[in-house]
Amino acid sequence: MGKASMERQLNDNEAIAMARSLRVSPQKLNVVAGLIRGLDAEAALAELAFCKRRIADDVMKVLQSAIANAENNHQLDVDRLYVAEASVGKSITMRRWRARARGRVARIQKPFSRLTLIVREREETA
User: What does the DSSP 8-state code read for residue 23?
Assistant: First the structure.
């Protein structure tokens, strides 16, 4: 009597992984996501390994998860995977305050982001 299962949103040659609350602004995360859009999975991992931005480690974990999902859940060939989509969105924003002069306060916003990576298997070239 449970809820009916949803139909699969992706194609048969795709796998997805997402991180829902990364502690970085979406603008900064989109810079790193732009580095790997369209790259092969191995090239994207190498690019993230040598990227100097702090959030690159978390993006690499999400990409490794997407590759593992493709291999284990959907039986896709790891050597033919590439990053088809890397979308970034806003999540929550923590609001803090800082004491300022003459009894006033200044608002500090600490944004969170979400990252969705879709890896797709390339078609065989004959």
Answer: S
Q: How far is CA 111 from CA 28, 93, 95, in A?
A: 11, 4, 9
- pLDDT recorded at residue 6: 85
How many Å apart are CA 35 and CA 32, to the nearest integer? 5
CATH superfamily for domain 15-121: Ribosomal protein L22/L17 (3.90.470.10)
Spell out the domain ranges in the chain.
15-121
Per-residue confidence at 9, pLDDT binned at 50, 70, 90? confident
Give CA 78 to chain center in angstroms.
18
Contact (CB, 8 A) for 38 and 86: no
